[in-house]
Design a protein that fits this description.
Shape: globular
Structural class: alpha+beta
Strand content: 25-35%
Radius of gyration: 14 Å
Order of helices and strands: HEEEEEEH
Distance between the termini: 38 Å
Number of strands: 6
CATH topology: Yope Regulator, Chain: A
Number of domains: 1
């Protein structure tokens, strides 16, 4: 089961516009980007954020789960708690980087 577009748009609406939220479909699910940085992974209509030290205190009471087979545990973000979402987005945006575009190898 993959995430619905309605849920992805709901997540983006929960994030303050100053963060310039956007989303991209990846592998059947979505990543929500903040200022072009991948911050929130959405799988099966569940919002996940990576377990990083900068948000450990904010997410100490949050549940954790594995978003897809082969992944490590990620925190489950309560997307309806707008204050928490803003704090988590702020902390993660500071430590995340914009992904580099990979050059495709030319085939002979």
């Amino acid at each position: 089961m993959s995430s619905t577009l309605e849920y992805i748009e709901f997540i983006c609406n929960q994030i303050d516009e100053e963060w310039h939220p956007s989303y991209r479909k990846m592998f059947g699910d979505y990543f929500v980007y903040i200022r072009n940085k991948p911050i929130i992974l959405v799988c099966d209509d569940v919002a996940y954020v990576k377990k990083l030290p900068c948000i450990a205190s904010l997410m100490k009471d949050a549940e954790s789960d594995i978003p897809f087979q082969g992944a490590n545990e990620w925190y489950i973000l309560d997307i309806e708690d707008r204050a928490l979402v803003d704090e988590v987005v702020s902390a993660l945006e500071k430590v995340s980087t914009v992904p580099l575009k990979r050059k495709r190898k030319k085939t002979p």
